Amino acid sequence: MVLGALGSRISDALRNMSNAMLVDDKVLNDMLKEIGNALIAADVSVPLVLNLRKAITQQVNMEEMAQGINKRKLIQTAVFQELINLVDPGHKPYVPVKGQTNVIMLVGLQGNGKTTTAGKLGYYYQRKGWKVGLVCADTFRAGAFDQLKQNATKARIPYYGSYTETSPVVVAADGVDKFREEGFEIIIVDTSGRHKQEEALFEEMAEVAEAVEPDTTIFVMDAAIGQAAQDQAEAFRERVDVGSVIITKMDGSAKGGGALSAVAATHSPIVFIGMGEHIDQLEPFDASSFVSRLLGRGDIMGLVSKLQDAGIDQQPELLEKLKQGVFTLRDMADQFQNLLQMGPISSVMSMMPGMSSSMLNSGSDEESARRINMFLSIMDSMTNEELDCDVKFNPSRIARVARGSGTSVNIVSSLLDEFKRFAKVFKKMKGLNMNSRNGPDLS
Ligand code: GDP
C-alpha cells in the first residue's frame, strides 16, 4: 500500500523493541531513532518528528513505570497514538447534507489531479446514492471540459460545461443554477488551475466562489510536494476560503507522509486521499485507519464501509465473527468473494488485517484476483465439514481436494497455510473494540 516502506520500517522498529530481552532506555531510544529516520525519509519535517519523539518519551517514562506494567504494549500504544496525532488535523470537515443542494468547489494548481478528483468525488457520492452533477469552470485550459466530460460519461454522472463561453464565472453560475433547479444534491465545480499570473488565478477563484456560493471549497494537492504542502496549503487558505484538503497521488509518492503531516499541521481537515488514476481510487481519510493500515494492522472500519459501498449486507455478521475471533474456511471463502466485488483489490487488501504479508497480495490487481479465484475454486471442492473446520485436513483429503479442483497438493497446502495465518490474525482480534482509536493490538 501507500508508503509501504515507511510502514515496514516503523513496524520493524516496533518489532525489534518488542523482541528485546529487556526494554530499557537504550532500546526505546533506538526504536525512536529508527521511527524518526523513517518519517524523515518520507519527508515528514524535522520539527514534527522531534515533537513526536518528545510526546512518546513523555508518555513512556521508564524510571517511573510501575513494576508489572506491560512496557512493550504501552510503548506500542504511545507510538500508534502519536502517529495518529501526526496526521490528524483535529478539525471536522463540512459534511454534505442529504436532501438539499451541496455545492463543492475544487481549487488547486494545474496537474495536481483536480479534474480527475472531481470525477472520483462525483462517483464516490453517486455510489452512495446521491444525485450528483459536475460543472467544468476551467475555461482557461483547452481540453479541460473534454477531460471532465470523459470522466463523467464513464461514471454516468451528468455534467455541465461550454466550448464557447470564455468566462469561468458565467459557466460555473449557469451550471450550478441548472443542477440546483433540477434538485441535484451534490454539485462539484472544477475550477482552473493555471493562469498567466498567479494573482489572476486567485482572483478568478474568488469570483467563481462569489458566483456559486459553495458550501465548501476543497483544495486539491499532489502528495509529491511533501512537507512543502504546508506553505502551499496556507497560501491557498489565505486567498480562498478552503474548508478541507484532498491529497492526490498518495499511491505514487514516497513523500506522502510529509504532505499529510504538513497539511495536518495547518489544521485543515483532510477529507480524501487519491490512491490511483482510476475513478474508484479515492478513499475517505481517517487518521486512525490510515495509521492502522500503514502498520499493516488492517482497518476493520474501512473494510466495513467498503462492504457497505459494495452493497454487501453482512457486516453485522462479519463484525460479530471478528469480535469472537471465529474464522473458518467458509468465512475466508466469503471474504474472498467480497474482495472481488469491492473495487481495487490492493486497496481493500490493505484494510484486511494480516493481508499485507499475504501471498495473495501480489501488488498487481489482476494477479491477486487470479489467485483469489483459484483459491475459491479449491474451496468449492471442499465438503461442508471441511469448510466449517469440523475436520482436520490429512494428506488424503488434501489430495482429493487437489484432484477435484484440478490443482496440486502444493497449491491446496498453500491455501491451508494462508488460512492458518488468517485465522491466527482473526483470533488475535477477539474482543476487539472496533471503535478504539488505538487500533487492534496485533503485536
Ligand atoms: P488537474 O490539472 O489538476 O485537473 O489534474 P488532472 O486531473 O488532469 O491530473 C493530472 C494527472 O494526475 C493525470 O494524469 C491523472 O491521471 C493523475 N492523477 C490524478 N490523481 C491521481 C492519483 O491519485 N494517483 C495517480 N497515480 N495519479 C493521479
TrEMBL record:
<keyword id="KW-0547">Nucleotide-binding</keyword>
<dbReference type="InterPro" id="IPR000897">
    <property type="entry name" value="SRP54_GTPase_dom"/>
</dbReference>
<comment type="similarity">
    <text>Belongs to the GTP-binding SRP family. SRP54 subfamily.</text>
</comment>
<dbReference type="GO" id="GO:0005786">
    <property type="term" value="C:signal recognition particle, endoplasmic reticulum targeting"/>
</dbReference>
<dbReference type="Pfam" id="PF02978">
    <property type="entry name" value="SRP_SPB"/>
</dbReference>
<dbReference type="GO" id="GO:0006616">
    <property type="term" value="P:SRP-dependent cotranslational protein targeting to membrane, translocation"/>
</dbReference>
<dbReference type="GO" id="GO:0030942">
    <property type="term" value="F:endoplasmic reticulum signal peptide binding"/>
</dbReference>
<dbReference type="Pfam" id="PF02881">
    <property type="entry name" value="SRP54_N"/>
</dbReference>
<dbReference type="InterPro" id="IPR006325">
    <property type="entry name" value="SRP54_euk"/>
</dbReference>
<dbReference type="InterPro" id="IPR042101">
    <property type="entry name" value="SRP54_N_sf"/>
</dbReference>
<dbReference type="InterPro" id="IPR003593">
    <property type="entry name" value="AAA+_ATPase"/>
</dbReference>
<dbReference type="GO" id="GO:0008312">
    <property type="term" value="F:7S RNA binding"/>
</dbReference>
<dbReference type="GO" id="GO:0005783">
    <property type="term" value="C:endoplasmic reticulum"/>
</dbReference>
<keyword id="KW-0342">GTP-binding</keyword>
<comment type="function">
    <text>Component of the signal recognition particle (SRP) complex, a ribonucleoprotein complex that mediates the cotranslational targeting of secretory and membrane proteins to the endoplasmic reticulum (ER).</text>
</comment>
<feature type="domain" description="SRP54-type proteins GTP-binding">
    <location>
        <begin position="269"/>
        <end position="282"/>
    </location>
</feature>
<dbReference type="InterPro" id="IPR022941">
    <property type="entry name" value="SRP54"/>
</dbReference>
<dbReference type="Pfam" id="PF00448">
    <property type="entry name" value="SRP54"/>
</dbReference>
<dbReference type="InterPro" id="IPR004125">
    <property type="entry name" value="Signal_recog_particle_SRP54_M"/>
</dbReference>
<keyword id="KW-0694">RNA-binding</keyword>
<keyword id="KW-0378">Hydrolase</keyword>
<dbReference type="InterPro" id="IPR036891">
    <property type="entry name" value="Signal_recog_part_SRP54_M_sf"/>
</dbReference>
<keyword id="KW-0687">Ribonucleoprotein</keyword>
<dbReference type="GO" id="GO:0005525">
    <property type="term" value="F:GTP binding"/>
</dbReference>
<keyword id="KW-0963">Cytoplasm</keyword>
<dbReference type="InterPro" id="IPR013822">
    <property type="entry name" value="Signal_recog_particl_SRP54_hlx"/>
</dbReference>
<keyword id="KW-0733">Signal recognition particle</keyword>
<dbReference type="InterPro" id="IPR027417">
    <property type="entry name" value="P-loop_NTPase"/>
</dbReference>
<dbReference type="GO" id="GO:0003924">
    <property type="term" value="F:GTPase activity"/>
</dbReference>
<protein>
    <recommendedName>
        <fullName>Signal recognition particle 54 kDa protein</fullName>
    </recommendedName>
</protein>
<dbReference type="GO" id="GO:0005829">
    <property type="term" value="C:cytosol"/>
</dbReference>
<dbReference type="InterPro" id="IPR036225">
    <property type="entry name" value="SRP/SRP_N"/>
</dbReference>
<keyword id="KW-0256">Endoplasmic reticulum</keyword>
